[in-house]
Design goal:
Blueprint: E1 2-6, E2 9-12, E3 17-24, E4 33-38, E5 45-50, E6 57-59, E7 67-72, E8 77-82, E9 91-98, H1 103-107, E10 117-120, E11 124-129
Parallel strand pairs: 2-11
Antiparallel strand pairs: 1-3, 3-8, 4-5, 4-9, 5-6, 7-8, 9-10, 9-11
Amino acid sequence: VQLQASGGGLVQAGGSLRLSCAASGLTFSTYIMGWFRQAPGKEREFVAHINENGGSTYYADSMKDRFTISRDNAKNTVYLQMNSLKPEDTAVYYCAAPSRRKRAQVMGVLAGRDDQYNYWGQGTLVTVSS
């Protein structure tokens, strides 16, 4: 399984970016996909996840009004649209996928837990300047 994140860069506060994550080596349409981020000196934190057909999404509270996760199963790609960016959004952003047998946990009581995800991309750096 390979997950290739892209789209990061330098943006001014208040700006927008769209991250992409191209997946290969898995039947993409049968996997939940998630985004996480890790800021310098901080632990990795959950951003959002999307279910297999894109009909259900879940966000961290601090990001749900500004970020939108989506997917295109025909392109094996998941996206993260980020608007109204703040300097505190500066981080390396990772896409990830859990094993399918963890579906119930990821969609339920263990939603947002990074230890439920088996496959990780290399990350893309987002820097928001003030």
